[in-house]
Amino acid sequence: MVEFALGQRWVSHADAQLGLGIVVASEGPRVTLSFPAVGEERTYAAGRAPLTRLRFKTGDRLRTADGRELDVTAVTEREGLLFYRTADAAGEAHEVPEIELDAFVQLTTPQQRLRNGHFDRHEAFALRVATCLQLDRLQRDPARGLLGPRTQLLPHQLYIAASVGRRHAPRVLLADEVGLGKTIEAGMILHQQLLTGRASRVLVLVPEPLLHQWLVEMLRRFNLHFALFDAERLAAGDGENPFETEQLVLCAGDLLYEDPEAQADALAAPWDIVVVDEAHHLHWQPDAPGQDYRFVSALASASPGLLLLTATPEQLGVESHFARLALIDPARFHDLEVFRAEEAGYRQWSELLEAIEAGRRPASLPPGLDEGASDAVLIGRILDRHGTGRVLYRNTRASVGGFPARQLHASALPAAGPAAEPGALYPERHARDDAWLAAEPRVAWLRDKLRALRPQKALVICSTARCAEQLEHYLHLRAGIRCAAFHEGLSIIERDRAAAWFADAESGAQALVCSEIGSEGRNFQFAQHLVLFDLPRNPDLLEQRIGRLDRIGQTGEVHIHVPYLAGTAQERLFRWLHEGLDIFRQNCPAGRPVFDAFREQLEATLEGTADSDRLIAETREATAAANRRLAEGRDRLLERNACRRPEAERIIEAIRDSERSGELQAYFETLCDNLNVEHEYHSEGCLVLRPGEHMDTAHFPALPEDGRTVTFDRATALAREDMAFLSWEHPMVTEAMEAILSTELGNAALGTLKLRGVATGTLLLECLYTVNASAPKSLQLQRFLSLSPQRVLVDSRDRDLSQAVSHERLNQLVRRVDHATAVGIIRQLQGAVDERLAAAAGLAEKHLTTLREDAARRAENYLGEEITRLESLQRVNPQVRDDEIEHLRWQREESLAAIARADLHLQAVRLVVVTA
């Protein structure tokens, strides 16, 4: 049994990029090491940890943490720790405990395995080489972080994800119109931030009805495993802060807004990014911000990154819009009146953009714009410098396009019973029991409508849980219609089951009867019929209802069915929404401000004390004027900056190039063959995976005992949720690749071959080197200095034959040798092998200097240009934060230092002996 002691220094067998580890805990069967070079801790099973104790010998040279290089003169061991007697260049003696050794150290284990007769199959050696090559390519892929999500390749979503996801600590307001996929955009940003190491701890706050949808979407689309925090989870802390027990936390906002103790715990935990969905619900007045707003403001101040999601950025009024921007950047948006004045100036920049695009470039340009610049450069600079484009992204349905038409089907019904009263907008709310169902004309109409639509699915929305529950009981038990209820009186799991039954295309419910909570966040675009049993006064709420079907992914026309009782308040509300706002045929961004302006007149009209026709005429005129205002100024700038289509198309093409090559499936099948994972053909681009009898779960994670069906095709993955979508960024692939390089698999092999023209007994030594640059993951050094695999093939005379005999050709020629023979060969040729290893290392070392220089030049150019760009931009656009620029300066300094100390790591070695 290996004995571990606190302070000992160990290295991973193959993952040299971790550097030198320190034992920080050893309890029972587990040992934990800290790796200072990369800022990580890892826990291993002590009995089979892939670790080797670092022991210097007399005559070796060591390096201390403070940079001194000393020669070892003697080694002693006291209480499990090594102490080195050393001498410096002046001959002065020093004692160095092992805990003071430099963390940046390399141990070349392939040589040790080769020398000690531990060999792998040639297939495993080839897999290791292929893994290095693929990882190197992925590290340099321009679409890195965007390959993995199970989403459509939509330009507006990918542009936002790329531009925001690559920032340090992004702080933005995602405000696309209803149905354009803000949750998808947020998930893409988080996926990219987490994959590249820019973030590791995330807190997501959502309305309680959307908890499970977020949980499922993050897992199904992005393979992000969030922990769901409810009241029970918060109460089970046992004295420790529950928010510090998980890296990715999903929680209902209301749960925290109403619990000061939970708020304190959430604020005490460190977060890299905080996400707040439906941020327009936060209550704010200039002199009286609500408790929920104050809490989110405190979170926003304590967290580097912040994503706010809302579909109504300005419809709730300039004050509310300003309040949300103040959460993003309180230093920039600190004065409401200053903000109003700035907004007034956006219109001139919008008009200038339109003139340039139309070929009417003014003879003189505003100060700060280069007269000699091209139109394209001018447009880019205007978008960068003016408006709220760096902190607010808003795509409109008009700019994105591709949405189906809306068809309105209004049904005027004769009023009867209590509903006949002229002012009765929601008569069912006053009923003491469900007797109203028998007399209400809309209920009979709904029954007949669903029967006529059968088997087409229909989403039915009404305003209250009581109404939804009673309608569902009536339709299911009395009318024999397969339907489910979805309302706040049900548990989250019950709601999810109802939504899943409705989504089942073969044996699911025909109708889902929702209360108002079905209007936000839930996506039912597989249905084309929406029944509005009643109508809300608030146009934004009505737009949310319609947006459950009329959204990205909808393939057919959306049919909106509205029953109303003729001659009552229901008819007057319908006419105001339809004839005044025209909200049923198209999205109405001006709906909320117009509603606020006409609220009192609308109430009087609904009560029957005001003229409906006059109100509709005035509303129609006000709506047209409001829509014109919203289309000018800031909205115009935002529309351009929210999706720069040429850049988005380049991202999409890079993703498609990665997917269409077929490399992933070929590599993955080889991976399965080597790791004893059974795989069989399912259909084109799809496999069925099952654990093999001798599968090593340490090498192949995320495979259930009963197997899994996977697809490499994006279209198939979008249509078949039961299949896993395998991309180069799926955990099953990335963790398997990391496991291969963090273990000894395939790093030493020995074989023979017959090669015409080459003398019998000739040695060929094939070595694969990669660059080892220990640095924190958040530095993203791989952008400039990737693994950069270097293959060297030397013969008995130390000639490099790597160009003459390719790796693939050698794989075809080499033959296996039984283990006993192989051990005999290596014992006999030990001296010659050591000489060839030294020669190969010398040849590879020549490339390292060039690699370092190229990487330093790339880092200096990229980061230097970005620093210069942001410094210049900050002088004209205060939305560029100081901490963004400071972080880039830190990245440049640390990147250049890490590149300068980069060395080579021998990943794999294969000895080949030429036979007769």
From TrEMBL:
Q: Which residues form the Helicase ATP-binding domain?
A: 163-331
Which residue ranges does the UniProt annotation give for the motif DEAH box?
Answer: 277-280
Instruction: Name all Helicase C-terminal domain ranges.
Output: 445-606
Gene Ontology MF annotations: ATP binding; DNA binding; helicase activity; hydrolase activity, acting on acid anhydrides
Which top-level enzyme class is recorded in the Swiss-Prot or TrEMBL entry? Answer: hydrolase
**Gene3D superfamilies according to UniProt:** 2.30.30.140, 2.30.30.930, 3.30.360.80, 6.10.140.1500, 6.10.140.2230, P-loop containing nucleotide triphosphate hydrolases, Tandem AAA-ATPase domain
* Keywords of the record: Activator, ATP-binding, DNA-binding, Helicase, Hydrolase, Nucleotide-binding, Transcription, Transcription regulation
- List the SMART domains hit by this protein, alphabetically: DEXDc, HELICc
CDD domains linked to this entry: DEXDc_RapA, SF2_C_SNF
Return the SUPFAM superfamilies for the record: P-loop containing nucleoside triphosphate hydrolases
Q: Which residues make up the binding site for ATP?
A: D176, E177, V178, G179, L180, G181, K182, T183
GO biological processes: regulation of DNA-templated transcription
Which EC numbers does the record give?
A: 3.6.4.-
Fill in the subunit field for this protein: Interacts with the RNAP. Has a higher affinity for the core RNAP than for the holoenzyme. Its ATPase activity is stimulated by binding to RNAP.
What's this protein's family per the entry?
Belongs to the SNF2/RAD54 helicase family. RapA subfamily.
Q: What does this protein do?
A: Transcription regulator that activates transcription by stimulating RNA polymerase (RNAP) recycling in case of stress conditions such as supercoiled DNA or high salt concentrations. Probably acts by releasing the RNAP, when it is trapped or immobilized on tightly supercoiled DNA. Does not activate transcription on linear DNA. Probably not involved in DNA repair.
PANTHER family on file: DNA ANNEALING HELICASE AND ENDONUCLEASE ZRANB3 FAMILY MEMBER, SWI_SNF-RELATED MATRIX-ASSOCIATED ACTIN-DEPENDENT REGULATOR OF CHROMATIN SUBFAMILY A-LIKE PROTEIN 1
**Protein name per the record:** RNA polymerase-associated protein RapA
Q: Identify the gene encoding this protein.
A: rapA
